[in-house]
UniProtKB/TrEMBL annotation:
Coiled coil: none
Protein name: Serine/threonine-protein kinase pknF
Region Disordered: start-end pairs: 209-241
Transmembrane segments: 277-298
Superkingdom of this protein's organism: Bacteria
The protein's Enzyme Commission number: 2.7.11.1
InterPro entries the UniProt entry points to: Kinase-like_dom_sf
Keyword terms: Kinase, Membrane, Transferase, Transmembrane, Transmembrane helix
GO molecular function, a single term: protein serine/threonine kinase activity
Amino acid sequence: MVDAEHSADPRFRQWFSRSNESARATTHPAIARIVGHGLADGHLWVATAPVPGHDAAALVHHHPDGIDVDRAVVIVRAVGEALDAAHLRRLVHSGLVTSDIFIHTDADPGPADLRPPGVVTLGGFGLTPPPQDEDTPHPDTDVAGLGRVLVELLTGTTSVARQRVSGAVSPAFYAVLARALDPGPEHRYRTCAEFVRAAELALHLTHTDGEPPTDVMPSPSPHGALARVPDSDAHAAGSPAPRVFGTAGHPGRPAGPVAGPVWSQGGSSIPRSRKAWLVPLFVAAVVVAVCVGAVMLVGSRNAPAPWPPAVSHIADAFPRLIPASPDATGWRDATCAAVSRDGVDGISCTDPENLTYAVWHTAPPGAQQKVTAPLKGYPGDEITWRDGPASASRESVKDGWLVTNFSAPVHVPYTVITTWPDHSGREILDAWWRTAPLG
């Protein structure tokens, strides 16, 4: 139920209806299914199918010092996948908080509830209006929201994101958060998946410079919204779960003990009974290697045709945007093919919505001018982002375009040109560019 003030706002009502209709048409296992919405007695309302379990806010309430890293990563990964799926349908949550995240369990989230969170369901779409200075919220808003949710899960508070690096927060993780919460939207991670991967790496591999890392932490299951966190019994009895934050999860509080690595005390660390297995294991390894080699030789006969040498380096430079072979599909199920324009080599892909993105090798002199020459009104309006110069067509151009260049050495030799018939450059920017895996 929405309060009367917002319900009376025509701008919010329009946003509410549009967002909920989009959410209703979105099918994803981690997005709550909307069964209806409307206006009654001066209040807007939305109803979802019943979601068992409790929300993440209750989890934080019962674990005020934060939950363990593995569990937090599984939750935000599932939520991130749901958000990215919504973004593909041009649906942005824009107001993500822990109370929007439902964790399916069979028991109340009491202090002793350390079992896996089970399936995660995300709700709350269409309840937060866009900021007053923009008509359409962008996916980077959800990246920042997911960052705040991760901090709250790990520390019990969101204020740590605004604190200076201290003993309670690892510098590596703080750097990831700083990018996710950057005031400049163009500086944030492009997708929630990209942010989650960076955060997971920082949380699981970080350690104080000059010191050995803490106890090795197993990677969470990669099964997305249906993934489950490893049981707490996986840790040795009596030893604390590895954590990046202090025991209280807040800056300024002393860090608690962590499980250290087991170091050899000198001499051979292999028991005599296990040494006897070394020779047969070596022989078995050789046999396996031979078998694998035979399988690889046989399989290579049926391998898909590779990209031509003239453009294979383009696919290598953009592995998430361009498929590994012409027979596969690129980002957003785009079909791709090698192309050439006035001697400039490239790979062009077109998705099911008829949006086309082409990656051109523009390192040779004059190549940039050749591939941008057909663009009406080029260079258009400049776009500032952290990875290089970009520009988009002005609103007066019916068939919009967007040109992306790069400053990172691995991508400097390339130019990405995105076109979309009957759509403006701004629409390409909002619907494609802001979430495209260009980095």
